[in-house]
Amino acid sequence: MKEWQKGIREVIPYTPGEQPRFDKMIKLNTNENPYPPSPKVGEALRNIDVDKQRLYPDFAGTELIEALSKVYDVPKECIFFGIGSDDVLSMAFLTFFNTGKPILFPDITYSFYDVWAGLYKIPFKALPLDEDFRLVKEDYYSEKNPNGGVVIANPNAPTSIAESADFIEDIIKHNQDSVVIVDEAYVDFGGESVLPLIKKYDNLLVVRTFSKSRSMAGMRIGYAFGNAELIKALNDVKYSFNSYTLNMTAIATGAASALDEEYFEKTCRKIIATREEYKEKLKKLGFYVLDSKTNFLFASPRGAKFDSNRAEETRKLFEALKKENIFVRYFNKPRINEFLRITIGTPEQMETFIKFIENYINV
Amino acid sequence: MKEWQKGIREVIPYTPGEQPRFDKMIKLNTNENPYPPSPKVGEALRNIDVDKQRLYPDFAGTELIEALSKVYDVPKECIFFGIGSDDVLSMAFLTFFNTGKPILFPDITYSFYDVWAGLYKIPFKALPLDEDFRLVKEDYYSEKNPNGGVVIANPNAPTSIAESADFIEDIIKHNQDSVVIVDEAYVDFGGESVLPLIKKYDNLLVVRTFSKSRSMAGMRIGYAFGNAELIKALNDVKYSFNSYTLNMTAIATGAASALDEEYFEKTCRKIIATREEYKEKLKKLGFYVLDSKTNFLFASPRGAKFDSNRAEETRKLFEALKKENIFVRYFNKPRINEFLRITIGTPEQMETFIKFIENYINV
Fold first, then answer.
1. For residue A37, what is the DSSP state?
2. Which residues from B are below 8 Å from A172, CB to CB?
3. Of the candidates B48, B89, B140, which has an alpha carbon nearest to the alpha carbon of residue A218?
4. Which of B30, B87, B241 is opposite residue A242, by nearest beta carbon?
């Protein structure tokens, strides 16, 4: 080893979900939206004054902030944005979790929480979900687990399960001394948002993304709501090392998407309808399917073919799907290695998927 | 103070250069390019398949990497990219400077170096430039200043001065045990690049940006060249906490810009010609002007009006310019508070600027 190599930061590189790119594949593996973004997004992109690219973007993202403020009825100073919700969440970890006390999140949840904790040297406790993959809310009470912060994805991923706003509020109520982050990446598909609670709890940060419900994963836009003081703290940290983040096109197209509420609601409704339909179909084929409020299903195959060694047989099904160019997600991790995570595609894609499953089971 | 507020990270928020936005101003304060980006950039933007925004961007940025590889004749595995060179530099600090030994950079240089060092808790030594604002290369020899890394902006900012490639190589030669970052944000305006040296020194990282010479500040694209092992280390760290950075439009337009070499060279030549012309004009008006190899001039007013209290009189000139909607940059910092940093605009803008100066001096 050369001397300079000793200074390299040691990391466990994350393996992103496969991003195969060829025609005729059915891509149900990274929770992307099967429908295009609002037509207003294309319009906004075509209307961009390319010559203005020579200038730095508006670092305050005024156009985007104003659109979000209008649509969600939240004051502008209560809105933060970043390059995808990953950037927003990472910035929130860096900004708020500096007490030295452990932060709390579930053992099964979005896989980056422990990564950011590691990156910023924040101690954490991963609290087990119960046997039905539900949060045990008392575990999060600060009197039971004194903490430096709480992070909850609601609906949760990859389980797809949502808890009620009352349930989440109870956790917030029991954590008034640390910042509580509620990651609502999937909330638009039927979850109950705690957004109204930011007026009541000044330590609540609600994080959202354009990547799922707004069909804009390719543009990398995330945002967050919280009381003005939380947002100021986030911006202070952000500006302290990088003032310019979202580029011109992201600001303009993000604003256009936010303002097209009709298209947004229509798309979400379509995905919810498809989800419910194929949840029933999977159940009829004997699958154990969690009650999803997201744009994906978390489903475990059951029956003769699977019951002897369910983890191994599930993995085989995953591989068999892949051979047919149907990509879903399989997590080779304790407790969830008997499940497939299936993003909701178009009805046509889902029909091809379910037909394959039918055949696979019956052969 | 509430309990949760005690967990907030303490920072000194950075104040970005003013971004006034109104018509008829002359904006020479943030080193933006006065010319629009290549027409190919507009084309690329118009050709984007908006529907594909529903998918995550290509996290490897293949299109952009291939374009840079072709244009700069560097293997693809030797190229890294990020959201502006700020993101690239910050990631390099995080990746390479983990020995606990101080890193070295000049006392007068890009103002974010000490900020990132602070953010990542990297000790540093800021070594004084000499009286003529030149690097004292022996100060950077590892035998004189044992270090965990070296960061040099060449040409330097805000001084505008470039050192030769041989001069920089001598510093690299004396630092084979730590990573040496050469920040070439301004190199396209007449500096000598050390890019060819990445084959010779496996610890050399050369950082560039699309914000200045490629007129694409609004798109936030930075990149770096180094041996494949350095680049792999950067990507490992990047992927370990955020796999998706540049959005679709940045990848596509960046590639288009890189491939239009003719337009790029023409624009750089125009800016260099304007710079030389107005450097002479400022000198004729008695200014002390450093020898710029960048798209800005670092100039100190001299003469009866200024000589009694040059720092104060320079600041007054800065304010007087601002009143006329001519924005330049003034740094209220020791050693450089007698200078203005003037971005090179179009000849028309520079003419308005110089006419104002003439009048100001002679009144």
1. P
2. none
3. B48
4. B87
